[in-house]
Fold these 2 entries.
Entry 1:
Amino acid sequence: MSYPDLHEIPLASIEVGNDRARDLDPAWAEALSALIAAQGQLQPIIVRPVEGAFRKYSLVAGLHRLEGVRLLGRETIPAYLSAAESDDAARLEEVMENLGRYDLIALDRCHHLYELKQIHERKYPQAKHGGDRKSIKRQSLPLDPDAPEVFGFSEAVAEKVGLSARMIRLAVSIWTGLTLETRRRLVGTKLAAKQTELKALSGESPARQSRILDLILGDEHSEIENVAAALAYIENGIQPTALEKRFRALSDGLKSLPEGSFDLLLIENEDRILASLKRRGRI
């Protein structure tokens, strides 16, 4: 989508809604402010005039750029004016703009594709249930108000966002499988950037999701860093590492040796045994 006119909009005139498709990451906004200070703002934000309000605008896309400029103490920001005529159209602009950015992590991508599906189904309700498979034609994305009905959301949007239909279906499935509380707790964590972890977590019940995050994000079990390790603990307790298993096997083997064989082993390793005793102050 092209925006012919660029404007300098006062930051004080821009409203940011509470239902953003992407939450603010303060660390990324701070990093972005440094980049903007060094090389300028390469990509303007997108705003939409607030109906019935004089020179007031709502943010459509560019939350982190807006905050980065705010951190620099500037009073205005370069912005394009959106021509979106509805909340859904504005949301679609936000989602599509963010999907094209390199810094979108796995959790955000799942959220954006879910939002895109919701908008798609509100505009084309027959697509939610598959529609008439014999008569419906496919298209790249229903942005055109005169576009024909569509059959499959994933197939329709795949080309536009550069992902396969399978990946889109997986992302939507992950987002819907995660509870609201789980999504909230994932924000800002390493897990949020790893789709494999999100997929594993989304397949668990709400209670298990909560328990898994308690184990990974809590301080009691620092050795548990991923969903697989958390599940292993829930099922079997903490599992010994490969080194711990090897040490236990050797220790058990020594204990089972006859006295004569044990003496021979000590003689074979006498120098190392004496050196160890000296290091530990035993001799």
Entry 2:
Amino acid sequence: MAKKNFDLIARVTNFGQQVIKVVIAMEKEVFASSIDRRLFDVAVISENPNDHSIYYDGKRKITNIYVSDTYNGTPKKSGCYIMISLLYGQKIEGASTVGFDTNTNKSVLLDYAYTLTQLEDIIYEGNVVVAKEQVYQFNTIKDNIIDNFIAKRSISGLHYREYTPTFDGENKALIIWLHGAGEGGDDNLLQIVANKGGSAFAQRKIQKLFKGAYVVAPQCPTYWIPEAQKTGKDVVDYTQKILDLILELTVHHLDIDENRIYIGGCSMGGYQTWKTIIAKPKLFAGAFPICPAYLPTRKEVLKIKDIPIWLVHSEDDPLVPVENSILAYERLKRVGGKAIVTIYPNIVIEGNNVHGHHAWIPALNNYPSNDNGLHLFDWLAKQVKNKAKEVTKEPKKKKSLFVSATAALTGVSLLTFTLLKRKTKKK
């Protein structure tokens, strides 16, 4: 009996990459009136490759089934492709391709095996079109954004993923994304599938915002913070390797606009964001440290005061103190820095509280906005080094420092958080 292939369609969600759909390529045309969601079962077994512990073993919930005349196309009356939409999102077991290993406190690419079972014959006008004994075999997994990130290795040995914008003869921005502590290693994939870091900037609407941008996500073999490496080998400061990578990129891609190089990261990637812009402040047109695991010293902020910087943090972060962002903002403002900070009281996604450390979820969805209503990515796209004074003007200062959070979008619970200057008593 001939085997039919099925593919999995994945997408990086707020909670990492998840399988959202099954696509079956049929040999014969199938009519929409002959199928419904009771026709198939989709099951998956996923496990941690480190210790072979089972993450999930069971069925995926089917939310819709339809036919199309193109691969992963829209519903049609008939076609040679059957699309099975699956339930995915927050707390949906079995959906993820990425797990978290509590033994190592790091993200892990799961091993998974999908099984597709046809429960009944597919019948149209009394004729059996596809018999239920049909054997379906897994072929591949596709992600229309992640698949556009090419795996590369820098001259200095740093693995990275690179998204190349559509060529149109114009110079392009360069966005560097630095992952958190959980995504280090040598797989050269976790850094762009564990969360929307990287992939957020490759979305069509965001690319349009930047008028095309290279997006590069290096992967640290260990940890960005030298003190966290704890290996028998020499401790490595990766700052120079990142700077070398940026130089390498500008040499290889002559259309990179060196006046529009941006850098950001979350948690430990926020640490490395600070260290990189401090090491070479004149290189960057803008930076966005998210829940950064570092507080720049007063001397360090003097070096970076001319860089437009937007910090994002959650007040209830249990891992990295929110004071890292609040104090960095205050120090930058005291020396005339171009800083903005968004502090969330807590993070709520799809009606549920999310871990307070995950401030990258609203940030990578472009939710933060400043006092003028300009959102994070829109603001970042406006930052140009030789026009920095023109594009970063702020309204007249008030007596208090204002930290704005965006209005509620897609269920994210936000407040406007105000930091009042401490009044000193006259003696």
